[in-house]
């Protein structure tokens, strides 16, 4: 028997559910409503539209066969009715109707439903600061805003921009403005680091350094306190606690919040922070109402706790699950690892699962293996260093997360995606050590970087490898007097080590090449704690094991070595 | 208490085990013997050395910090004694000694061991044909052969080459010769396809077409019967059943066989095909003797049966497991998926698990989902089509394998590696549908290609999608009279369909654009079985569902559509 399905929201989860449902139940009546005129677009593509990589906004709304996904497309190709510029005002759960208003005509009507889906998405958080409503101040709320930003740029109206918010969208927008339009761009982030909660501080520091090299002025621990008016209602600058930045364009990208007012008003369970609560079948507290996408609370596959993951990819997967369940085919959505990836100029940064910081905050006995191998066979021409960090629980050896920073290509995808697949299955360090990465020199190493990271983690868990935390090392470099007995033992080629020895003195910076330690260890001064240093870490570990064997166990390995240190936005290398 | 460990073979598994063991047991005496003078090299890099991508052979034997891994390196840096040019002649399991001979001096000695490891590797199969011993005929047996090949080329002695064997090494060598040296190269493969048993025929056909476009003459179903002598002991041509090819260089790359004579002579269990039998701890039938690398039989994680997987990456992982077990830390090696990847000019081809053909031969109720999506967001500038095929069991929905063919970048690594991680855990189609691939437009699609392939598999299993096997479609295209009631229903843009309609006639090739089917389906002729065709497949599936709903259920989807067909090495497009 045909049923009536109403879907509120037609960007990602909504259309996916609608189309899947129509394929499963071709005779059901499916109606989508959306308050916008532009629907079913790839919101994650907005920075690439602004940059010019994507030349026309309609490409973000087109199928792979170049047909624009508008109301007519859904009607003709999918058999789904779409009411655009139509706002859902209220749900009457008793009568099972949704009151909607046509925003052009003001006409209202009640849409009856057998089952309802909420795919109301998210809205950007508006900073409550003076000047937030000035002309030239934008959030990346929808495609209209993106079109307006690009028009201003294309008309030559923008020469200086400030992006507020160092999350993915903020960074992508900063790149778009700087790289392709040559706009002088500053990026402000209130937190002490970019991508807070997504990557650990040292990954953020590597990213920051690269952004700065590419001409973006990055200010962390700095928030906008006021947007300045040029006297004619247009923004002309941004005031922070520390400085005033000139700007004819300001982009606020300080995160998004679930749009869940409709759900809340209807009496559905909504988390205090706004996420609509759903079960594994993505049913809300009313079994006739489903929800998916940026408006819902999901479950972390790592902590088992409620989390927020507003991503277009998840919205699509969730939408399909809702489509199945609406059609009467029970399907579950278990939760998320929280995979993240982004291009930043010539680099790629990615993560899945928990950071060390987040894991420790969640109460995990977390540690990390920081490595710096080649991203493919080290003899292959295109190879480059990738920084890879495995986060794990020491006690039960479960892997909690992976982070990576490297060149802009897909090699990091391979490691992060594999990691997410394993983490979702509760994999241990040993699973990571054994995972079979397809090998040929143009793609990977005989010992893949993900296997190698697991080996380091294993050695840490087994207390064979003792590392010094990166932050502690940097603090010591800042004030060597704090630990008077420490010295770096630099295992690299003497030519590489020489400038450091000269700079820090042979007391503090001892050069002894890796291949000579077995014969020359007698020369090492007594009473020192050695910080073992090489380019990537493996040589340091090898030497630590050897020194331990001699009974000289006062050593710590700087995991990741110079490859990590030299990529950080810290200035000790130049002191 | 210190123990004596002897390792026979010092290329991949041997050195890995030796170094790991020395880190775990620094006071143990570890001795490696190898009959060669060059050890610890990346054999998979040989084609890139021959091509010139890797300029010097020593790079294949160097660490990432540019130190050559010779006997001195192992002695000084690792504390491992290495006897090069030393052949292991026999094992006395009672006395626990290995008799070895120094190939330079002829001196023999018995090396005592507490535990022994065999890492004797593989040898290339020599074709038993006349002329196989002529000058200019090579196998890729070791680095010396590679050096000699490259010298000949660099000296301008090679203008025409024949590579016998269409496996990975043969194809990589054909590319090296053609691409960088401009040598006129032919490639012979006895089987009906390239990469037999590694990919299904249609993937091999796509690869063949690309090789031919790049100037390699590929002859499948054709074997060398004789190598021709120029009268002075040098090869000058290759005779096959069908033709004679001129050649001043012949490379035989017809597979490798385990080197297990030493094991067999010592009475260890060896499979009839030559693989040394080991348990999960990689112990041979003598608990004091371990084995790893190209000389052993491993277990397929998919079939649970014995298989052969001579890969440098596996050799390293196995070597580490042996190192652990030798040291007394029980560690297991469960088995392999058989992941494979290779660069072929501007394309990448990869696979993990079983092909459809292999799966059916193994008795699985196997089917396949063939898809042709974009390898990243379809609106992103660099995007390109990737052909992705999921192989699965219909009954229990377990995934058995994945194959991919696309552009030469790392995006296929990401999908194949993720697939291998899942397959090793016994994952189902639903796991593939849910796997969380990190999404941003430069890297992936909101619905990742691997998720999309799983959706197609799901629809096949649920009998919602009925496909026509590719081979059956091509057979019909060859002889349309064989199925007089069949017609293609071309759902692409009329401009795309027009030349086909003209060529095959409006009876056989009906053009009706996807977006018009819901309004124009009444025009479709009765009594026909429609082969639904679009670029990638999704539109065809959508239309099949719709036609089914109308009761017109005589239709079959050509999965992968024109994107697959146009990449095949078949000529029907031009008829």
UniProtKB/TrEMBL annotation, chains A, B:
* The entry's keywords: FAD, Flavoprotein, Oxidoreductase, Redox-active center
**Chain ranges of the FAD/NAD(P)-binding domain:** 4-296
Q: Which cofactor does it need?
A: FAD
What InterPro entries has UniProt attached to this entry? FAD-bd_OxRdtase, FAD/NAD-bd_sf, FAD/NAD-binding_dom, FAD/NAD-linked_Rdtase_dimer_sf, Pyr_nucl-diS_OxRdtase_dimer, Rhodanese-like_dom_sf
Keyword Iron in record: no
Its family remark reads:
Belongs to the class-III pyridine nucleotide-disulfide oxidoreductase family.
Q: Which PANTHER family match?
A: NAD(P)H SULFUR OXIDOREDUCTASE (COA-DEPENDENT), PYRIDINE NUCLEOTIDE-DISULFIDE OXIDOREDUCTASE DOMAIN-CONTAINING
Q: What is this protein called?
A: FAD-dependent pyridine nucleotide-disulfide oxidoreductase
Q: Which organism is it from?
A: Desulfobulbus propionicus (strain ATCC 33891 / DSM 2032 / VKM B-1956 / 1pr3)
């Amino acid at each position: 028997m045909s049923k009536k399905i109403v879907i509120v929201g037609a960007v990602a989860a909504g259309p996916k559910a609608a189309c899947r449902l129509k394929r499963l139940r071709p005779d059901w009546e499916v109606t989508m409503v959306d308050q916008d005129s532009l629907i079913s677009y790839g919101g994650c593509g907005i920075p690439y539209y602004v940059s010019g990589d994507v030349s026309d906004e309609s490409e973000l709304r087109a199928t792979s066969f170049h047909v624009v996904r508008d109301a007519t497309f859904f009607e003709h190709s999918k058999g789904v009715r779409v009411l655009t510029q139509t706002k859902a005002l209220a749900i009457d759960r008793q009568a099972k109707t949704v009151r909607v208003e046509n925003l052009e005509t003001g006409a209202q009507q009640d849409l009856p439903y057998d089952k309802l889906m909420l795919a109301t998405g998210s809205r950007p958080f508006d900073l409550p600061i003076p000047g937030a409503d000035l002309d030239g101040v934008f959030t990346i709320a929808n495609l209209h805003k993106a079109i307006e930003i690009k028009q201003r740029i294309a008309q030559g109206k923008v020469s200086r921009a400030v992006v507020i918010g160092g999350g993915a969208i903020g960074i992508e927008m900063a790149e778009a403005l700087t790289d392709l339009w040559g706009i002088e761009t500053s990026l402000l982030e209130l937190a002490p680091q970019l991508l807070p909660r997504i990557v650990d501080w040292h990954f953020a520091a590597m990213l920051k350094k690269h952004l700065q090299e590419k001409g973006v002025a990055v200010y962390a621990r700095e928030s906008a306190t006021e947007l300045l008016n040029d006297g004619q209602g247009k923004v002309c600058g941004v005031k922070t606690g520390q400085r005033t930045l000139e700007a004819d364009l300001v982009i606020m990208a300080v995160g998004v919040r679930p749009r869940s007012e409709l759900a809340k008003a209807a009496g559905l369970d909504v988390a205090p922070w706004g996420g609509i609560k759903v079960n594994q079948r993505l049913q809300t507290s009313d079994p006739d109402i489903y929800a998916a996408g940026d408006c819902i609370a999901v479950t972390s596959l790592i902590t088992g706790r409620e989390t927020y993951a507003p991503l277009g990819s998840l919205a699509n997967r969730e939408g399909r699950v809702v489509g199945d369940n609406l059609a009467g085919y029970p399907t579950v959505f278990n939760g998320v690892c929280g995979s993240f990836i982004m291009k930043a100029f010539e680099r790629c940064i990615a993560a899945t699962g928990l950071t060390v910081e987040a894991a420790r905050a969640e109460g995990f006995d977390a540690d990390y293996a920081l490595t710096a191998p080649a991203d493919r066979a080290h003899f292959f021409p295109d190879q480059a260093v990738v920084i890879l960090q495995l986060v794990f629980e020491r006690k039960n050896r479960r892997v909690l997360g992976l982070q990576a920073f490297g060149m802009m290509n897909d090699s990091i995808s391979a490691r992060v995606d594999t990691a997410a697949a394993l983490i979702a299955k509760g994999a241990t360090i040993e699973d990571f050590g054994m995972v079979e990465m397809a090998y040929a020199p143009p793609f990977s190493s005989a010992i893949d970087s993900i296997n190698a990271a697991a080996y380091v983690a294993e050695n840490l868990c087994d207390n064979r490898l003792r590392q010094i935390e990166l932050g502690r090392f940097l603090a010591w470099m800042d004030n060597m007097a704090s630990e008077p007995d420490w010295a770096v033992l630099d295992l690299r080629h003497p030519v590489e080590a020489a400038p450091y020895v000269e700079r820090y003195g042979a007391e503090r910076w001892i050069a002894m090449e890796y291949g000579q330690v077995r014969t020359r260890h007698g020369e090492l001064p007594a009473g020192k704690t050695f910080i073992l240093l090489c380019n990537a870490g493996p040589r340091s570990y090898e030497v630590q094991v050897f020194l331990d064997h001699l009974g000289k166990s006062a050593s710590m390995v700087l995991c990741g070595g110079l490859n990590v240190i030299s990529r950080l936005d810290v200035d000790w290398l130049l002191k």
